[in-house]
User: What shape does this take?
Amino acid sequence: MEQPDVDEPVFLISAAAELAGMHAQTLRQYDRLGLVVPRRRPGGGRRYSLRDVATLREIQRMSQEEGINLAGIKRILHLSREVQRLEREVERMRPRADVGSRIFTTGPTGNVVIVERGRRARRDEGRAVVLWTGTHD
Assistant: This one.
């Protein structure tokens, strides 16, 4: 049996509000505040995913049970997404048994880029070169 895509935007605002135990107007407010931004249909209608509904429930929990205001919740959600992104990046960089050593550098935007080592570079295993460019304070 195939697992549902939790990011597929399938729910109308009324259905998402019901699943989250909220009023549709609350979902509109959260959309305006950037807490949960659903995808839009060509006509402008909002479509929510299962992940969006789970986030709405988490917002409600943090607000009611933890007493966190919406600005605090927005910051928590942003930081949680950033942690998940960084965890994926770390996992992507983690050496795999079949790959061997890896070299990392930064691209023009400052993002970390993996440089796969070729056969020629393997004879230098155990050595590392760090190249710093730019100005130093």
Remarks:
- The CA atoms of residues 131 and 137 lie 16 Å apart.
